[in-house]
TrEMBL record:
Gene3D superfamilies: SGNH hydrolase
Designated name of the protein: SGNH hydrolase-type esterase domain-containing protein
Length: 159
């Protein structure tokens, strides 16, 4: 959704569960924009990586997303538009391609959730349980260590 007067974007998660007055506010103050198409999204992300690299050669970590949506139990996709879970899967595969081209690192939240049980690690489509956030933080530290960033910091070198 885009704010009608100020132009900022806003993702209205679980809009249908909102109180009627909140849904009314959303409808009166915002206009639907639809999702950004996959190709534009990946091109924008790659442009951001390129822009960062123009200024400094630093490790870049991008988190992927777990496509597990608690409570979702689709078994037949015929007649459905793109589901949010499938959109996430496309995004994650796009990140792999970006990693291959640009050398970014992926914090693989999807695999972490799968290994530890997404049904217990995810609160909803976006939010994780506290123990899941800890796993993600530990994975970030592992990646930074693999990249030598922690050693650089320990030795007082700045990135």
């Amino acid at each position: 959704m885009r704010h009608k007067q100020e132009g900022f974007l806003f993702y209205a998660a679980d809009f249908n569960s909102w109180a009627p007055e909140d849904r009314g506010w959303l409808k009166s103050d915002f206009t639907p924009t639809g999702f950004l198409d996959f190709e534009t999204s990946m091109a924008n992300l790659e442009a951001i990586v390129d822009e960062i690299r123009k200024h400094k050669d630093v490790p870049i970590l991008i988190y992927n997303v777990s496509p597990i949506i608690p409570g979702e139990r689709i078994h037949c996709y015929q007649g459905l538009d793109e589901t949010f879970a499938n959109r996430i899967r496309r995004f994650n595969l796009g990140l792999v391609g970006l990693s291959e081209r640009a050398g970014i690192s992926i914090v693989d939240v999807d695999t972490l959730m799968a290994r530890h049980g997404a049904d217990t690690m995810k609160l909803d489509a976006f939010h994780l349980a506290p123990q899941a956030y800890r796993l993600v933080a530990e994975e970030v530290v592992r990646i930074l260590d693999d990249l030598g960033v922690l050693e650089d910091l320990h030795e007082g070198r700045q990135l």
